[in-house]
Amino acid sequence: MKKAHEQTEKKTLYERIFYNNKLILVLSFVLAIILWAVIKINYSENTTRVISDVHVDLDAALAAENDFVPFFDDDDLLVDVEVYGKAFDINNYSLTRDDITIEATSGYIDTAGYKTLTLTPVVDGSVSVVKITPSTVSVYFDRIRTSQVNVEAKLTNDTDSLVAEGYSVGQIAPSVNTANVSGPASVVDNLSKVYFEATVADDQLPLSATTEVTAKISYALDKQRDSRFLVCDNVGTDANPATVTIPVYRVDTVPTTVKFVNQPPAFDDVPPQVRISPTEVEISYTPDEEGYTTFTVGTIDFHDLKNGVNRFTLTADETGAALLTNPTEKTFQVQVDLRSMQSTTIDATGSNVVFLNASNDKKYKANLDSSGLDSLTLIGPADSLAKITADQLQIEINVSAFKTVTNGWQRAKISNIAIMSDSIDDCWVYGNYEAQVLVTEK
């Protein structure tokens, strides 16, 4: 009975082991590891494998002693490494590019230029390096230099199709006129300018307004290969991108005209008869501005107009709109016909005097006797001229320049001579006059 009981207990233990799935799984895993280790150690074959884009560690300490630094792109220091060893040791899981070290030492550097450096591998003892491709790397060594260089804007688009009909393109401009460029001294010294190269996208064409375009930075160098080592310190970043502005102007052909100043009220709405050559011009202006219906070629002061034909040569002011068609001197011949007017002279030495911009703590006295005012010339219709008397004239003298009290008379230009009459609005004073002014303390 006892023996049968023991056999029953043993049978139960065996059943517990072989019918327990979890225990069987653990035992299988342990046996698999043991089997893998035995095969790896005793039966794994040697093979080769190429690992791409292994980074070269560059030691430039000796070059730095002479202030030389290496210039390179990251791709310049990437190599392919062929390794040899057990398959288990060099597979993708056992060996990666981070496990391989390839070293390059600059040595002592005292001249600028490209230096060819040999490569030395450092790997685990169970793996050997068969080949490094390329077997050497080329690195540019030089001292660092920063220089200010002119910037030139360039546009790659065809200018004929750049703007819409009725528009023109102005002088394109870079976002900065100069750039601080850093890089190898021997390269920076040969750099003549920096280019901002811009291209307007097809979906933006044709342009009908001034446009700003992000630009690509390039350098004016004979050897473009060396330009990859250059950096613009003050532009070309996300915070301060390089851009090119393309000015776009509206183009119109409009008649020419002149502006009159110091005109009598009668001529405010109906100016004198004027002939201008040329009679019309082609102009360009910013589209955001109001359209130009005329182009003003200059200003004419009524004090310069006599009875008869007055001829002027005026140089155009292109502050608002620019001329596209006109003589290169930008001049216009203007003729003002006032032959219907008459002239007369009057003694204005007894006329009223007004001192403009006078100081409160000073007194001013005018002497009109020796200033030509005794024969002041008036222009206008004959019936209006007959009504003007000296006491209707107001002589205005700007004394803002007379800040110092002196013992003598000072010469002053008469700013204006106004006709103070409500019934006379079509006459004016012809010519320019001066007066003597005495400044004293009150």
Structural description of this entry:
- This protein has six helices and 31 strands.
- With 442 residues, it is mostly beta strands.
- The protein is elongated, with a radius of gyration of 47 Å.
- The strands form seven sheets. A seven-stranded mixed β-sheet has the order 11-16-14-13-9-12-15.
Give the C-alpha Rg.
47 Å
Ends: how far apart? 151 Å
3D shape: elongated
Number of helices: 6
Count all strands and give the number: 31
Q: Estimate what percentage of residues fall within beta strands.
A: 35-45%
Strand order of the largest sheet: 11-16-14-13-9-12-15
Mean pLDDT: 87
Q: What is the helix fraction of residues, given as a range?
A: 10-25%
Sheet/helix structural class: mainly beta
- Which regions contain 5 or more consecutive residues with pLDDT less than 50? 1-5
* Main sheet attributes: strand count, strand direction, barrel closure: 7 strands, mixed
